[in-house]
Design brief:
400 residues; alpha/beta; Aminopeptidase; 4-stranded antiparallel beta sheet; 12 helices; elongated; binds (2S)-amino(hydroxy)ethanoic acid; binds manganese (II) ion
Amino acid sequence: MSDDLAARFRELWDEIAPVGRDADSGGYLRYALTAPEIELRGWFRAQAEQRAMPVTEDGNGNLFAHWGDPEGEDAVLTGSHFDSVPHGGAYDGPLGIVSAFLAVDELRAAGVTPDRPLVLAAFVEEEGARFGVPCLGSRLLTGALPPERAAGLRDAAGVSYAEALGDRPAGARPELLGRFGAFVELHVEQGRALVDTDAPVAVASAIWPHGRWRFDVDGEGNHAGTTRMADRRDPMLTYAFTVLAANKEARLRGAHATVGRVSVEPNATNAIPSRVTGWLDARAADPQTLAGLVEAVRGKLAERARRDGTAVTVTEESATPLVAFDGGLAQRLAALLDAPVLPTGAGHDAGVLAGHLPTAMLFVRNPTGVSHSPAEAATDDDCAAGVRALARVLKELTCR
Ligand code: HGY
Ligand code: MN
Ligand code: MN
């Protein structure tokens, strides 16, 4: 059935491509449990139904489609997420779900009958773009995040996660997690690691440790025109200096630091801000470097606040330790696919599940090397190669 796989990929892809796409930027606004993502969840259910795959939910907002007994043990899980960052790319997340459905088609067309249940997952709020904690669905499922913390998370409009979930009973589901024997997530590559290679698919070795730190800087709101420069306690200065310091400290360490989100109160052109809030996204190849980076930035922030006469509060919003994927599994899949093995600085639900079951990731080449942006891309041929690779891996893992 593989001969027209690229065409079948494009056909299925075009069903979801318009959902949640912003006409101006071309990026996606698919926030967890909002209309576009709910529409994609409906698409997921329809695709599962077309394949006679019953769908279950885990109470946390995660969806599962089952090939085999939904209560069956030692299942192989595959899938990814639908949600996006604001104006994100098309492939980050949905590629892993669309590819999983097509991989099921490939296996069935080849007459494969798995000896283990095969489960497709759509994890909720992987980006943390609405409620602020990434991999919220997989963290709840695994117990990495207590439901009471999730219930209190609020989006920009003040809607809590509990309200967004409706009457679902969020919380750890060890009995469900215990039924999974392995997890494989296919994902678009989010850097340039495959751009200059002839490999359309790679296997992941690790995810860099990373985290998010919110820093609130409080100063004295005042009039832009009547307040002397010497009399100001301007939090925007403390914030601006911290952004520059984070950039420098990251470069010194070969790490990554980003401040991509800021909020200003009262956010008026002719008013000195009373509060500026920034969010630091920090990542490094190892935990020691990451800790050193964050410590250095916190120190620079405090030092500058003293100079500016501002007050600073730093809150760790999420932290993800180094994820070293199951080395034996990664090597086994790399040999099976004749694919390179590479680390990533991007977080994934696979990084959360890896702490609970043998987990692997497949990356599909992204010719732009750009992600979390409308410029994110993948060719239909490479996506078809990804489906073939995923089908081979799922056959390898589900057939004894
Ligand atoms: O932020 C990340 O690394 C992922 O895309 N959620
Ligand atoms: Mn992402
Ligand atoms: Mn992703």
